[in-house]
Amino acid sequence: MPSKVRLFLDHPLAEGQGVPLDADQAHYLFGVMRLGPGARLSVFNGRDGEWEAEVADAGKRAGRLVAVAQTRPMAMPPDLWLLFAPIKKARTDFIVEKAAEMGCRRILPVQTEFTNSERIRADRLRAHAVEAAEQCGNVFVPEVEDLMRLPEVLASWDPSRTLWFCDETLATGAAATPDRTGAPGAVLIGPEGGFSDAERARLRALPFARSIRLGPRILRADTAAVAALTLWQGVEGDWR
Amino acid sequence: MPSKVRLFLDHPLAEGQGVPLDADQAHYLFGVMRLGPGARLSVFNGRDGEWEAEVADAGKRAGRLVAVAQTRPMAMPPDLWLLFAPIKKARTDFIVEKAAEMGCRRILPVQTEFTNSERIRADRLRAHAVEAAEQCGNVFVPEVEDLMRLPEVLASWDPSRTLWFCDETLATGAAATPDRTGAPGAVLIGPEGGFSDAERARLRALPFARSIRLGPRILRADTAAVAALTLWQGVEGDWR
């Protein structure tokens, strides 16, 4: 973990750029982290890389930073999305955090036939993605979409993006990892109860979908997400 | 998740075998899960596979099951260990849970130079390993050892077991995954602050150690554990 404070800000960053702080940010930097005028911290906005910034004004409910110098250039992770069926709150939070750490560009909660949770708080999940990026030193933050029904997501799918679909019913002996295609990708993780037979048949018939098998043991959804993203990064992504 | 109740019992299992229940088990089965005499459940002990059992006596503070028939034979996962530096409580629990799901046989908490937590509750971690096995349908439960200092673990290491050591300082371009050796394995995950320079130098010099690289982004320890175990299972384990 970096010892320096690291903060995501939705504001343009450039040399000498002033950045106003809202009440939450001021509370965190000056109340919780005890920074004062002249203190240095790292900031990023997901578009302009990482910057060293200096505290110019430190108030109780507001403040201002000035960007001093770029410390890391902007770098986007590979073109990878995660689609997952929301589960219990804590594990849904974990999946979003893991997707951010593993370098997903976009996170799509999808409702499947066996998904129990009908609602998600997308703003809460976005906050988790931001926090993971702050903690892990990333310069990008994945987009978190609102919940959509899986059939709708598939109906508007760009077929040039390969969908890796984790199929726990695949026979032993099936390849754990497909060959490299170089195409943009997405990983789809089903809910705790798995996919319905109809969903599985539909997924298997999609020309852009590839079944993968995550070993012979049943994995919880958050574990399966990290494992599948690892396999994708190893074959198609930037872990090669 | 299996809809049937699934319980780990530290008792021999065979056809017609009676199994006494302690107060905690009786409370869970009869109080929480509302099972009564004649109800069926799945039980396993980590040695005799999975059995269907029937409730013979259901009391408030005790009870008895009878094993009816074996439903799955005993099967051990590949010979894989996880060594990790304990971190905050909730994430340590998660690492143990993930190691159990991913098919580790043995979990060794190790104290490194930058490990903050000096104590772990091994009994608590064992309970998490059991719960993960119950939830995920496994018939084995990994052993969880007491905390040991890393140098002591390495001093008594059997050199025929390969140690995969996650080295975040490895240069880009290093192979993410080594070639298959067929040897028993272990994955070592460092603490949040990484390994010290002295530890890293020592690890690199070990003839049984192989450095692996988990991509260009910093991963939290629990994420790194699942990712490294995935890579091992794909190369050396039963995900091939």
TrEMBL record, chains A, B:
Residues 79-233 form the Ribosomal RNA small subunit methyltransferase E methyltransferase domain. One of its GO terms (molecular function) is rRNA (uridine-N3-)-methyltransferase activity. Keywords: Cytoplasm, Methyltransferase, rRNA processing, S-adenosyl-L-methionine, Transferase. GO terms for cellular component: cytoplasm. Its main location: cytoplasm. Its EC number is 2.1.1.193. One of its GO terms (biological process) is rRNA base methylation. Belongs to the RNA methyltransferase RsmE family. PANTHER family: 16S RRNA (URACIL(1498)-N(3))-METHYLTRANSFERASE (PTHR30027:SF3), RIBOSOMAL RNA SMALL SUBUNIT METHYLTRANSFERASE E (PTHR30027). This is Ribosomal RNA small subunit methyltransferase E.
